[in-house]
Write a structure and sequence with these properties.
285 residues, alpha/beta, 45% helix, globular
Amino acid sequence: MSKVSYSQYSQWSHCPLQYKLNYVDKLGIYSSSIHLVFGTSMHEVIQEFLTIMYGTSKKAAMAIDLEDLLKTRLIANFNIEKNKMHGNPPCTQLELEEFFGDGRKILQFFVNRITKFYSKSGFELVGIEIPIDKEIKPGVMFVSFLDVVLRDKISDTIIIVDIKTSTKGWSKYEKNDKIKSSQMLIYKLFYSEKYNVPLDKIKVEYHILKRKIDENAEFPIPRISKFVPANGKPSVRKAWIGFSEFVDIVFDENGNRRTTGYHAKPSRLCDWCDFKKSGHCKEWI
């Protein structure tokens, strides 16, 4: 059984050749960074806070030393990534300290404005890291996990929240990137099918955690902001068509990845590609 994720679709959409080199030729070498360490740690801290707030009490959650928890998780995830890279550290101590400072500011904003993002009155926590798996083609299994799922008890509506860490927030370019914003539409569709919840009873939103803000800006963007993409049935259907097209192009009738038909797609993202000037991409030979 081949496993596929939305991140694979995103990579294939931005550059089919990069996808082939990673998933067909398996030439990619695992690499990590402070961004991964920080993103994982912030997810864990916020998820722990919400678990206590909804499962025990808001008072108990507010009593958590979030800064200490963040520090603990940063160190733990640093070591996990270091082990994955055979002893090579994913970042420097200075980077850890800088990101820890940024994370403290985000968490301060988070607890001071908790009701803007997570209200306990009339809401319940359905779960953290809820799995959504689906066989979308014979031999091809989609696997992913949802960061936070809430239920509005009054309207009996599900709210799926995806937490994103970002350096400067999402610009218009990122918000208009349909591949990026459609991720939650696919999650919405699969959640609806797996848990038998009507599409019109599911809402989705991104919570974007911003590390850097311009303190001198006239209208500075807050540390945390919501972004709700168009997610009605037509938008969900369009997202599904794009994703299913990817699956049909990449996987054959037996669920195996095809070995031909991939091309390079030069873009601004090439600067972050591990295969740039590696000799495997003709655009950089």
